[in-house]
Amino acid sequence: MKKIFKLRFILLFVGLGMQFSCSDYLELIPPSGLVREEFWKTKEDVEAVLMGAYQSFASLNETLFTIGEARGDMVKAGGNLGGNERNLMESNIYPDNELCNWEGYYKVINYCNDVIKNAPEVQKIDKTFTDFRLKGLIAEAIWLRSLNYFYLVRLYKDVPLVLTPSENDATNFYLPLTKGEDVLQALMKDLNEYRPFATDGYKTIEEIKGRATKAAFDALLADIALWNFDYTSCIEYCKRLTQPGTEETNKKSIVLMPGARWFELFYPGNSLESIFEIQFSDKNNQMNSLFDITNRNNNNYLPSTRAVELLSRKLSAELTRGEGASIAPLGQENFLIWKFVGKAPDGKSERPSSEKNSCNWIIYRLADVYLMEAEALSQMSRFGEAADLLNMIRNRANVVPISIGNSNTVFEDAIMEERALEFAFEGKRWFDLLRMGRRNNFARKATLVEIIIKNVPSTQKRILGAKLTNPNGWYLPIYKGELERNKNLEQNPYYKF
Fold first, then answer.
1. Residue 476 covered by a domain
2. Domain boundary among 193, 225, 257
3. What is the C-alpha to C-alpha distance for residues 306 and 312, in angstroms, rounded to an integer?
């Protein structure tokens, strides 16, 4: 594991900040080759490392798409899909698969740890570094670190909990695994402690939507609480966004986009509905790779049969989110993923070459919060309230309300389908399904296994279906290289051969 963190703080900031839209706050990146003794002198140095953390997270955009979609039921493999991605999709996963390498997440975490540790020391030197600014920057680092750990826990279950930066060779990062539930408990404590210091008064739309605000804290807290099946807390965090009080007036600017403008979520992005999204801009060489893996010619990821059933005009009534918006026709019965390719909800007008890699990657938006709240309410048998929120999202999408029986399972299915429609290809599907499979002591294990093996060749379905009744197989193995470096790690027992 030491390889992940062994930066030795010869700051390799070449290209840092390149994943964000151009604004003053991104012009704080230090030159490459700057050593620690020459750094950590001003508040701008602190912000520069924080921007490095955001940039490093942005570089994971294709990975976030793959890990959030490949094992679900909304995408299928095109002819050019890589072997690692195809193996993940087919649950043919081994510890040498590069997609099991958690290095990228821990790189972000190390930047955040650096900020959290060194910012207070910088304040002793820089007399213009106010307490307000100090706490605001640390709060951002806490949020981004927590988000990356939340991804890690959902992917691996148990992971090393690293809360100090790697600054020299003497630092010991050969840490054992920490139980996932203990990691999440630590995250919740940090997030609740630092939420009051999150800054909301940013000057540019790129900062408002691309940096951690109180709204981003609340969305992440709600998501973790829902994952933990703490429905009361989830509802409380959601209501801060869906029913903001007078002290939350800044959040009144976060509203659902009208149905007629739904596609503006993706083009041009940074919509009224957005809570946090990674910023990209082709003209500033800040490029998202999702156009390249979903366009007409690439043939990597395509909408699955299930996605076509939910979204195509022939089989669905989804006029706002369906064909022309989430997917687009390629030919007879063939479709492509449109959200990251198009500039209009017509399935025809692609982004021009100068903008093809400018699509922001949305982590949280208000519709997500409404549906998290609906899910929590339904699991508490508050069916009427849950139905109101579910039908609010359907009404925005110009589809008829649905009437649902008073059953936790029936509501769960309805909400899972609504989330599939609303967030198709946005990197959420696998985590939604995994949450469903874990709920109520794995009561719906068979349902999840059935979904997982849809992408598996027919000759393997029976064997893999039997193996995946072990929930450890729903998580990734620890990468082979990490096990070789860190003898304190123990492989997920599902992958011990």
1. no
2. 257
3. 10
CA-to-CA dists, residue 440 to 85, 187, 340, 376, 469, angstroms: 31, 23, 36, 13, 15
Helix (H) or strand (E) holding 440: helix 429-442
Q: 190: domain range? A: 2-75+96-257
- Residues 284, 311, single domain; the answer is yes
Count structural domains, the chain.
2
Say what the pTM is.
Answer: 0.92
Type of residue found at 363: I
Q: For the chain, give the number of residues.
A: 497
| Residue type at 234 in one-letter notation | C
> 242 and 330, same structural domain?
no
Q: Measured between alpha carbons, how far is 75 from 285 in angstroms, rounded to an integer?
A: 28
Q: Are strands 274-278 and 75-77 parallel, antiparallel or unpaired?
A: unpaired
> Which residue bears the tokens 């060489």?
285
Q: Which of 234, 257, 280 is the last residue of a domain?
A: 257
Quickly tell me which residue has 């029913």 as its tokens: 243
pLDDT tens over the chain, length 497 residues? 433 322 323 233 333 333 333 333 333 334 444 456 678 999 999 999 999 999 999 999 999 999 999 999 999 999 999 999 999 999 999 999 999 999 999 999 999 999 999 999 999 999 999 999 999 999 999 999 999 999 999 999 999 999 999 865 445 568 999 999 999 999 999 999 999 999 888 989 999 999 999 999 999 999 999 999 999 999 999 999 999 774 554 566 899 999 999 999 999 999 999 999 999 988 777 789 999 999 988 889 999 999 999 999 999 999 999 999 999 999 877 999 999 999 999 999 999 988 998 999 999 999 999 999 999 999 999 999 999 999 999 999 999 999 998 999 999 999 999 999 999 999 999 999 999 999 999 999 999 999 999 888 889 899 999 999 999 999 999 999 999 999 999 999 999 87
Give residue 341's region: left, alpha or beta (phi > 0; psi -120 to 50): alpha
Whether residue 344 is found in the same domain as residue 388 = yes
Tell me the two tokens of residue 462: 């029976």
